[in-house]
Inverse folding.
């Protein structure tokens, strides 16, 4: 399906961002650059990103690196280049809420990307998602999982090394793979309300990949566990980084010959088969809601609706 490669990337990813990974090993360049006026710093406070004010449109707020007080950062990461400038992320979570508001008020406010991501330009949303995701990884890997000693950050924030010389275990930033899938039967698609979803909110099914599973195995297992449906013709669609906190969502399509639903009530409160016409009318209908365009779940739904 060559035309599928022409489709735009999903929100929170940016294929044009230059990660410049060769610079990660150049400690002298990193040290000079992170104190230069051309470099920009994206501060992240307790997994929230600094965003300028606004109603319908928000902009990422960055601070020139030569004006940033690096002593405030618990961790920092060289992200790469955008618009010809080097970008860094800095974790400033040690601030109390009132202090962070006072110090950063001139630039913006710290917001949950899930709330404001769809109001940001796509490249800025992707940059903030990257910053948030990798700093969360640092926060959760300050100690060695092998021997328990502290770790230290290296390679511009893209590696952590155990400080216990007799251990020396390395850790690298990671994402947790999760599948998300639109299931079709007879010109209808399966949408469900998960146990943690708001009332009237339905979406496609999703679940985490377990050790020893292929992605296709996970798609088949999750659909059967949650809705009792056996699927076939499992095909990859697209993917989306989803740093809430650390997922990589892998989107799939699949079909079933038997639409009988047997729900797992601990996971799924309700589920049903929806026609394209019904979904097209949802925007004008407050009885059912589907995910915002910001998410791959909506991308899967919209692409399917556009086919018929
Ligand atoms: Zn260790």
């Amino acid at each position: 399906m060559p035309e599928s490669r022409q489709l735009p990337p999903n929100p929170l990813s940016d294929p044009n961002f230059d990660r410049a990974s060769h610079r990660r090993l150049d400690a002298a360049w990193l040290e000079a650059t992170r104190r230069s006026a051309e470099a920009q710093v994206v501060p992240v406070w307790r997994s929230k990103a600094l965003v300028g004010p606004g109603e319908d449109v928000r902009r990422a707020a960055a601070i020139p690196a030569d004006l940033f007080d690096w002593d405030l950062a618990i961790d920092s990461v060289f992200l790469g280049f955008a618009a010809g400038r080097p970008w860094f992320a800095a974790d400033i979570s040690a601030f109390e809420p009132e202090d962070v508001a006072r110090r950063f008020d001139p630039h913006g406010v710290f917001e949950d990307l899930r709330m404001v991501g769809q109001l940001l330009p796509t490249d800025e949303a992707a940059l903030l998602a990257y910053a948030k995701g990798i700093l969360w990884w640092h926060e959760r890997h300050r100690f060695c999982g092998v021997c328990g000693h502290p770790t230290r950050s290296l390679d511009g924030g893209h590696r952590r090394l155990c400080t216990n010389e007799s251990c020396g275990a390395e850790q690298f930033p990671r994402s947790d793979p999760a599948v998300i899938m639109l299931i079709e039967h007879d010109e209808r698609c399966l949408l469900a309300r998960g146990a943690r979803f708001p009332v009237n909110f339905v979406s496609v099914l999703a679940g985490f990949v377990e050790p020893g599973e292929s992605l296709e195995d996970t798609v088949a297992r999750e659909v059967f566990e949650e809705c009792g449906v056996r699927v076939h013709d499992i095909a990859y669609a697209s993917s989306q980084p989803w740093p809430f906190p650390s997922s990589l969502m892998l989107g799939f399509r699949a079909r079933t010959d038997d639409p009988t639903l047997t729900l797992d009530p601990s996971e799924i409160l309700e589920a049903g088969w929806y026609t394209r016409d019904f979904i097209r009318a949802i925007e004008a209908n407050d009885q059912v809601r589907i995910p915002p365009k910001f998410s791959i779940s909506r991308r899967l739904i919209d692409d399917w609706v556009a086919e018929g």
Remarks:
- The longest strand covers residues 232-242.
- The helical segments are 27-33, 97-104, 113-116, 122-139, 215-227, 276-280, 296-306.
- The pocket of zinc ion is lined by residues 144, 146-147, 149, 162, 164, 167, 169 (CB under 6 Å).
